[in-house]
Amino acid sequence: MAAIMSTISSQLLVTSSSLTGDFYQAFFRKEASQKELITAGRVSVALVALVSIYLAYDRDSTILNLVSNAWAGFGAAFGPVVLISLFWKRMTRLSAILGMLSGAITVLIWIYAPLTINGMALSDWLYEIVPGFIVCSLTIITFSLLGKQDDQLVSDTFDKVQHTLEQLD
Description:
Elements: H1 2-28, H2 34-56, H3 63-87, H4 93-112, E1 116-117, E2 120-121, H5 122-125, H6 129-146, H7 152-168
Helix pairs in contact: 1-2, 3-4, 3-6, 4-6
């Protein structure tokens, strides 16, 4: 039970932090006060918890399915962002946010849309992280190439870290 509670709290905190900093502050209130960000974080924790409770009430669902779906959502939303940001300096802030949203939405569609392939639900046919990861990656790459490069400081910092890593070899 302790491991479950630890995992849940970690997932809620990561989601809250991401929604507050990467979404709320980036798009709605760039100059938000610390108090306002704390309130936004608490509201996002409550919303994510309520959505999670709603999803848990599905009687046909098992703990394994719920955990599998949760990790697919996190992996598809955040995995490509982390990997691409480590190896490609052209990734922009907007493309990262759009990638996270597209990956998570793809996972939700893959799980809950009433679509079938040869009579099988999409999630029975292919684990939902795969299409989510692909859609997220393609979204990041596409919008990074189409968009304007972020602050020069991002590029300079990437080059500095790259240079430091090359010296370690």
